[in-house]
TrEMBL record:
Its EC number is 5.4.4.2. Residues 152-400 form the Chorismate-utilising enzyme C-terminal domain. InterPro entries: ADC_synthase (IPR005801), Chorismate_C (IPR015890), IsoChor_synthase (IPR004561). Belongs to the isochorismate synthase family. It comes from Actinocorallia longicatena. It is an enzyme of class 5 (isomerase). This is isochorismate synthase. The keyword Thylakoid does not apply. Keywords: Isomerase.
Amino acid sequence: MSVALGASERLVVRTVPVAGPVDLIGRLPHPSALAWIRGDEGLVGWGEAVRIAVPGGDDRFAWAGRRLEAIFAAAEVHDPLRVPGSGPVAFGAFGFDAKSSDSVLIVPRTVLGWRDGRAWLTTIGEPEALTLVRPLVEPEGIGWTDGTLSAPEWGSAVGAAVERIREGRLGKVVLARDLWAESRQPLDARVLLRRLSDRFPACYTFAVDGLVGATPELLVRRSEETIESLVLAGTTPRGRDAAEDEVLADRLLHSRKDLDEHAYAATMVREALTPLCDSLDLPDSPELLRLANLQHLATPVRGRLNSERSVLDVLAALHPTPAVGGTPTDVALDLIRELEVMDRARYAGPVGWVDARGDGEWGIALRCAQLEGNRARLFAGCGIVAESVPEAELAETQTKFRAMREALEG
Ligand SMILES: C=C(O[C@@H]1C=C(C(=O)O)C=C[C@H]1O)C(=O)O
């Protein structure tokens, strides 16, 4: 852990109401942006008061929660608003794999929030006398190179997964691939955030430590004792017109393959949340979620926690769901390591924010890229079941890559 303000220093945190509406992305002063935005609402942050590098291990969410609780408990907090996201907040991204050393929590020096007609500004320590505003840098001359596996190699991996499933070793596995982009300019998260949030207003557009994307999948939102989630699995493209859209949607809603793929994820979420809740509303059949480029089967979930638990405790119970892992989880995770070959890093891990009351919102890091200077590593994956066809899954990854591709290419 590093405390930028000095290890022994106690955080002094002040939240004040400010005039809204606020253009959250427009207020980010430099490319090292922290953001969690849906429509025009959400939180952005900049500067680092505290950075916690979370070590790998099965108890990493609990470990991170204890560290954060100690820091927040010691802080002097002035927060007259006391709404989710006011007071001190940590943005975070966890590696997909429990052993990953890529997990990080960052408590920004400044947070700007805007939700339900209310705007607020939270600062930690003395206000910076001067915040240097760096001009936006657009990506330029993007070039593309294969990731760990070429498209045909990845198609063969899908074929191998289908065989294992047909042998009865598992029901579902999610296989992903990566792709590299390189710009002539250093990549600026703010430019990508703006493009993604304009194109995908229903998604959660995020930036945490260079991980930038727009995910449709809400892993969990906690507001006091209420938790919500949106389980996604089962995908089809958008049609070229309204009529084709309807045909594709209708096919998806009745596709045995997609309904099975979805049921694995919804069932696991039900099983994981039931012991944590005294009421849980999870419909038996999915509905349709339409995005700019894709349509998904979606199950909205709502529950009431039966005891005091932070949003990080709920993450620990849910991650990895079969929307990004598979069923049974352990068999699927082994197969992912064997067939994908690559390190997923933070792709498909939880990304979001948590406040000092344990409220917060976390999505699954999908439709995203990890920025590294001029380069970006993009990721996309698909649920594979017994009836999956490699060519169709490859086409689905191309469509899923498109969100970040187009954000990079303008
Ligand atoms: C794995 C991804 O998406 C997940 C897989 C889906 C599917 O296979 O139908 C749908 C939504 C997500 O849960 C991804 O976008 O990379």
